[in-house]
């Protein structure tokens, strides 16, 4: 049984200036399911009065990319003229606890809240360096170019900064490999306050698991009924 959740389309404005540097960003958060995010449009230029980006905006984007510590392969794609639309920082799911502790040092925690699930923090370069020095946790910076699809595992903290105006299409899904992470995140959401955006169990991971197993067993039973030799051959394998 295949479960397709939601296909979402996002339209983002570019990061335009230091004064509005939070515009066009998605703060650090964790998705309850796996997700794939495809960049289908990048709008470079056209934001100034003359139809072009001003020098300050261009320099800001270049500085953002160079400061992100992306690998040589991504830098080469940039040199080859490919269009970058967004800068991602992904973390290992196992590092979520340490990230919470780091953010919690600067934020006052209240009952029913969570340093990551509240989606109130974006870790800039200085924050990422302090996090690495403090807890040895490192992010994986990914520069998303036009046409790139990025897969985000359930339970993996991540944040996004859009370097130019762009359109993305995303689809959530549940993979067998990350079902345990879906259940862990679902349980974390339950501890949030009843008014929290993420409190409701929208994914219903246990129902997905139940109906998947039910479907598999039904198929096996029907196969045995229509092909009795199947059961005999299967038992020989285990004897």
From TrEMBL:
InterPro entries: JmjC_dom, LSDs-like. GO terms for molecular function: chromatin DNA binding; histone H3K9 demethylase activity; metal ion binding; transcription coregulator activity. SUPFAM superfamilies: Clavaminate synthase-like. Keywords: Metal-binding, Nucleus. Residues 1-190 form the JmjC domain. It is found in: Nucleus. Pfam families: JmjC. The keyword Metal-binding applies. GO terms for cellular component: chromatin; histone deacetylase complex. One of its GO terms (biological process) is regulation of transcription by RNA polymerase II. PANTHER family: JMJC DOMAIN-CONTAINING HISTONE DEMETHYLASE 2, ISOFORM A (PTHR12549:SF38), JMJC DOMAIN-CONTAINING HISTONE DEMETHYLATION PROTEIN (PTHR12549). This is JmjC domain-containing protein.
């Amino acid at each position: 049984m295949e479960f397709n959740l939601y296909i979402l389309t996002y339209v983002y404005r570019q990061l335009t200036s230091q004064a509005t540097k939070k515009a066009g960003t998605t703060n650090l958060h964790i998705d309850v399911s796996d997700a794939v995010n495809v960049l289908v449009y990048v709008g470079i230029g056209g934001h100034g009065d003359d139809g072009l980006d001003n020098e300050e905006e261009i320099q800001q984007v270049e500085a953002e990319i160079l400061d992100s510590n992306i690998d040589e392969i991504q830098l080469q794609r940039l040199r080859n003229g490919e269009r970058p639309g967004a800068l991602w920082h992904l973390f290992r799911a196992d590092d979520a606890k340490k990230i919470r502790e780091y953010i919690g040092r600067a934020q006052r925690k209240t009952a029913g809240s969570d340093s990551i699930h509240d989606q109130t923090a974006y870790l800039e370069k200085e924050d990422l360096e302090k996090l690495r020095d403090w807890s040895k946790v490192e992010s994986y910076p990914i520069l998303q170019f036009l046409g790139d699809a990025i897969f985000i595992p359930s339970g993996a903290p991540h944040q996004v900064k859009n370097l130019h105006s762009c359109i993305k299409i995303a689809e959530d899904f549940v993979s067998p490999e990350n079902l345990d992470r879906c259940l862990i995140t679902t349980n974390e959401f339950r501890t949030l306050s009843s008014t929290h955006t993420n409190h409701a169990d929208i994914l219903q991971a246990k129902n997905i698991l139940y109906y998947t197993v039910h479907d598999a067993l039904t198929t096996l039973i029907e196969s045995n009924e229509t092909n009795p030799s199947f059961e005999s051959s299967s038992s020989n394998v285990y004897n």
